[in-house]
Design goal:
This protein has helices at about 1-20, 25-30, 35-60, 65-90, 100-130. The chain is an all-alpha fold and about 140 residues long. Helix 3 runs parallel beside helix 5 and helix 4 runs antiparallel to helix 5 (about 100-130).
C-alpha cells in the first residue's frame, strides 16, 4: 500500500505535465518523457519568437518616417524582453534545478511572447484603421 501511495503522485505528474504545455503542436501529444517535452517547448518558443520578430519588423517598417517612434519602440522592446525573461524566471523559481524547469521556462516565455504578438497586431490594426495615436489601445500614429 505504501508503494501505491508513493507511486500515485508520480503517475499524476506524468499525466498532467503534457497537458500543462498544451499547444497546437502535435509534438506535445507525442512527447512521453520530460526530455521530449523540453524539446517541444523549445521548438515552440523558437517558432513564436520568429513570429514576434516578423511583427516587430513590420511595425518598424510602418514607423520608417518617424524616427522618434522607431527609437522608442526599440527601447520599449528591449525593456519588454528583459521584463519577459525576468518574469518567467520568477514564475518558474520553484522548479529551478529540476528537470521540468527548462520546459516550464520556455512555456512561460512562449505565452508572454504570444501576448506581445497580440499587442503588436493591435498596434498594426489601429494603424490600418486610421485611429488616433492618443487612443489607449492604439499607439502608432497614422502616417
Amino acid at each position: 500500500m505504501k508503494l501505491l501511495a508513493k507511486g500515485r503522485p508520480l503517475l499524476i505528474l506524468v499525466f498532467i505535465v503534457p497537458r500543462a504545455f498544451a499547444s497546437d503542436d502535435a509534438c506535445f501529444e507525442r512527447a512521453s518523457t520530460q526530455a521530449q517535452i523540453s524539446v517541444c517547448a523549445a521548438n515552440e518558443l523558437g517558432k513564436i519568437d520568429r513570429q514576434l520578430n516578423t511583427k516587430y519588423r513590420e511595425i518598424i517598417d510602418h514607423l520608417r518616417h518617424d524616427e522618434a517612434a522607431q527609437s522608442q519602440l526599440i527601447v520599449a522592446q528591449r525593456k519588454w524582453i528583459g521584463f519577459r525573461d525576468a518574469e518567467c524566471t520568477f514564475r518558474t523559481i520553484n522548479s529551478q534545478g529540476g528537470s521540468m524547469n527548462r520546459s516550464s521556462l520556455d512555456s512561460c516565455l512562449t505565452n508572454l511572447t504570444k501576448a506581445r504578438i497580440n499587442q503588436f497586431n493591435l498596434y498594426l490594426r489601429c494603424e490600418m484603421n486610421g485611429r488616433h495615436s492618443t487612443s489607449e489601445d492604439c499607439l502608432i500614429a497614422s502616417q
